[in-house]
Amino acid sequence: MSYYKDTLCIISLLSCLFITSSFAGPVPNVENSSQKLIPTQISSRDTKASSSSTVKGLRERPPSSYSIKLESFNTLMKSTYTERYESRPFRVGRYNWTLIVYPKGNKNDNGTRYISLYVAIDNSTLVSPGQVVPADLRFYVFNKKQKKYFTIQDSDVWQFNVDNTMLGFPRVLPLATFNNLKNGYLYDTDRCEFGVDVIIPPLFEKSELFTVNKSFPNSRFTWFIQGFSTLPSDYLSEEFTIGGKSWNLRVFRNGFGAHEGKNLSLYLNLGPQELLKAKPYDKIYVRAKLRVPNQGQSNYVLERPIDNWFSPQNIGWGYADFMALSDLRDPAKGFVRHDMLVVQVEMEAISSTKYLPS
Ligand SMILES: *[C@@H]1O[C@H](CO)[C@@H](O)[C@H](O)[C@H]1NC(C)=O
Ligand SMILES: *[C@@H]1O[C@H](CO)[C@@H](O)[C@H](O)[C@H]1NC(C)=O
Ligand SMILES: *[C@@H]1O[C@H](CO)[C@@H](O)[C@H](O)[C@H]1NC(C)=O
Ligand SMILES: *[C@@H]1O[C@H](CO)[C@@H](O)[C@H](O)[C@H]1NC(C)=O
Ligand SMILES: *[C@@H]1O[C@H](CO)[C@@H](O)[C@H](O)[C@H]1NC(C)=O
Ligand SMILES: *[C@@H]1O[C@H](CO)[C@@H](O)[C@H](O)[C@H]1NC(C)=O
C-alpha cells in the first residue's frame, strides 16, 4: 500500500519534470518519443583533452554543491517514460546549474547499463553566446555500506558553453554493481543518493618565480683582518655585494657561545641593505665556501661549506667551531702572520625569488 503511494508520488513528480523540460505533455509513443527526451548536446569526451584522465575514489565528506536523495529508485528504473531525473537549479558562481541522473544510463552517450551523471548549465545565465565557463566537477554516489561517497572526477577542467551545456560521465558505475544491494549503493531496498561539486576555479593572481644564479663576475670576497689580536671579540667585515645581494662576514676571534676559548667562529651574514629590503617571507638559498687560507709555505686552505637558506629569521650561517684556536695561534701553522688573519668566502650559488605582484 505504501509502496503504491510512493509510486504515484514519483510519477506525478516526473510528469511535472517533463513539462518543465522541453515536453509539451504526455508522450503517446514511448519508443519513439524517448529519443526526443535526450538533449542533443551531450558529450563527456569531445570537449575534453584526450590526455585528461578520470579519477575515482571514496570520501567521507558530503557533496558541496548539490545532493539528490532518491527514495524510490526502483520506480524510476521501471519507468519506461523516464530517461533521467533533473534537479532544481542551484547556483554556483554567477550561473545556475542542474544535476542530472540517468538511472539506466544515457544511451546517447554510450552509457547503457551504467549510471550516468551530468551537470547542465542554465544557458540563460551565460552573459554572452561565446562565453566559456570552466568548471571542475566531482560527482558523488553514496555508499551506505562503506559510509562513504564514491566519487568520480576528471583531471582536466570542463568547458561549458552555449553548445555544450550538459557535461559529465556516462559510465559512473555499472548498473550490475549499483543495483546489487550487497554493494551498498542501493540501500533500504530502494534508496540512493547522488551529488556534485561544481567549482569554478579562478586563475591565480599571485605567483613567485624562483631562480638560482651560479655565475657571478666576482664570486669571491677576501677579508684581510689586520691587528687580529686586538679585534673586538665579535667583528663584522665591510658590506660587500655578490650576485646582486649584499653580505657581511662575521668572525668571533675567541669563539662564540659554547665554543668560546676553543674555536674560531666564522659566519656569512645577509648584509644590512639586504635586510632592509627583505620581506618577512623572503628566503635566499646559498651554496658557498668559507675559507681561512694558510699564509705560510704550504698552500693549505681550511675550507668549510655553506648550503643553507638565509632569511630575515636566519640572517647568518656558518661555524661556531670553524677551526681550533690552538691551530690558529700556533705560529708554526701560519694561519696568522704579522697579526693578520685572512678570511674568504666564495659564492657558488645564490637564489633570488621574484614575487608577482611584488
Ligand atoms: C516510430 O516513429 C516512426 C516514424 O517516425 C514510425 O515509422 C515507427 O513505427 C514508430 N515506432 C514505434 C515503435 O511506434
Ligand atoms: C537561478 O536559480 C535561482 C534559484 O536557485 C533562481 O532564483 C533564479 O531565478 C535562477 N536564475 C535564472 C536566470 O534562471
Ligand atoms: C560509443 O562507442 C562506440 C564503440 O565503442 C563508438 O564507436 C561510438 O563513437 C561511441 N559513441 C559515443 C556517443 O561516444
Ligand atoms: C538555451 O537552451 C534552451 C533549451 O535547451 C534553448 O531553447 C535556447 O535556444 C538556448 N539558448 C541559447 C542562447 O542557446
Ligand atoms: C647572475 O648574477 C649576475 C650578477 O648579479 C648578473 O649579472 C647575472 O645576470 C645573473 N644571471 C642570471 C642568470 O640571473
Ligand atoms: C674546536 O675546539 C676543540 C677544543 O680545542 C677541538 O678539539 C676541536 O677539534 C675544534 N673543532 C674544530 C672543528 O676544529
Mean pLDDT: 86
Our measurement of the CA-to-CA distance between the termini, rounded to an integer number of angstroms, reads 70 Å
Main beta sheet strand tally, sense and closure: 6 strands, antiparallel
Q: Approximately what portion of the residues adopt beta-strand conformation?
A: 35-45%
How much helix, percentage-wise, in residues? 10-25%
CATH superfamily of the largest domain, by name, is: Apoptosis, Tumor Necrosis Factor Receptor Associated Protein 2, Chain A
Structural class comes to: mainly beta
Q: In CATH's first tier, which class of the largest domain applies?
A: Mainly Beta
Task: Please compute the radius of gyration using only Cα atoms.
Answer: 36 Å
CATH architecture field of the largest domain: Sandwich
Number of strands: 22
CATH topology descriptor of the largest domain: Apoptosis, Tumor Necrosis Factor Receptor Associated Protein 2, Chain A
Low-confidence stretches: 1-42, 45-49
| Small molecules bound in the structure, each named once | 2-acetamido-2-deoxy-beta-D-glucopyranose
Number of helices: 6
